[in-house]
């Protein structure tokens, strides 16, 4: 396997590059790896999450829901 290490400006290793063909072979051997891949959300999922966010904002404005700190929100992202 030909791995390449990815380093930041200070020389600290921050990641690993695996050629796509080798990644595909690894996924065949280890089925659980598939779950680690990032899945782009669908348009419907993004819209649903936006609707929920707007609803939560309205509830906060009405005093029916307690707002959470911005730090918590950013950590969720």
Your description of this structure?
- The mean pLDDT is 90.
- The protein has 3 helices and 2 strands; from the N terminus they run E-E-H-H-H.
- The two termini are 33 Å apart.
- The chain has a two-stranded antiparallel sheet with strand order 1-2.
- The radius of gyration is 20 Å and the shape is elongated.
- The protein folds into 2 domains: 4-36, no CATH class; 43-76, no CATH class.
- With 77 residues, it is α+β, with helices and mostly antiparallel strands.
- Strand 1 (4-7) and strand 2 form a beta hairpin.
- The protein has helices spanning 20-29, 43-61, 70-76; strands at residues 4-7, 13-17.
What is shown here, in short?
This protein is α+β, with helices and mostly antiparallel strands and 77 residues long.
Considering the chains and any ligands shown, give keywords for the structure:
77 residues, alpha+beta, 2 domains, two-stranded antiparallel ribbon, 3 helices, 2 strands, 47% helix, 12% strand
Task: List the topology elements.
Layout: E1 4-7, E2 13-17, H1 20-29, H2 43-61, H3 70-76
Antiparallel strand pairs: 1-2
According to DSSP, the number of beta strands is 2
Overall radius of gyration: 20 Å
Mean pLDDT score: 90
Shape: elongated
Label the structural class.
alpha+beta
Strand residue content: 5-15%
């Amino acid at each position: 396997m030909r791995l390449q290490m990815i380093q930041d400006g200070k020389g600290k290793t921050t990641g690993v590059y695996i050629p796509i063909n080798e990644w595909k072979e690894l996924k065949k051997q280890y089925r659980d790896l598939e779950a680690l891949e990032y899945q782009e959300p669908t348009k419907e999922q993004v819209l649903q999450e936006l609707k929920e966010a707007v609803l939560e904002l309205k509830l906060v404005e009405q005093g029916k829901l307690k707002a959470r700190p911005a730090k918590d929100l950013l950590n969720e992202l």
